[in-house]
Structure prediction request, 194 residues.
Amino acid sequence: MKPIFAIAVALAITACDREQTKVVAPPPAPAPQALAAQAVKPPGPPPLTPQGWGPITMEMTHDQAVAALGKVKADASTRDQDWLACHMIRPESPDGVWIMVEEDRVTRVSVEPQATGVASDRGVKVGDTAAAVKAAYPTGLIETPHKYEAAPAAYLTWWAKPGVAGIRYSIGSDGKVASIAAGTPSIEYVEGCS
Prediction:
């Protein structure tokens, strides 16, 4: 019996040793798609939405907007009656973004052609086709004639909240987005503050 007991003890000790020296395999390498998803996007201009752009939100005061931007290209020192009624703030970067302030409240953010990289929250940017705008807004897009140019020039407007917050794409005679305005009903102004 002693040899059988000795063999049983030896087998038990060997089994314990195997558990302690168990080799743990490294986790499998992530698939290339997973690595791409983990990649950090380079910083770029924030998207334009009916509620604002980056740190700028509708209904901010002039001073709040300037503070949120940090630096602006021009900030009028004379605040006369016309300035109080309506004026524009130009961020230092990117060029081609304009912030409209009426009665000391931000009411609109506009994007002109030189604002490279700035797109709406639906991915539409200046230079895209009217067809791209229509594809981005399959429902609720309102098309109206352009004030100064013949078709295919037009205005394509989408309201997130009808008559309160929206986004308007000005389509040029080439059938492409010439500018974008987002915010309050002031997006319907054709010439700056009017």
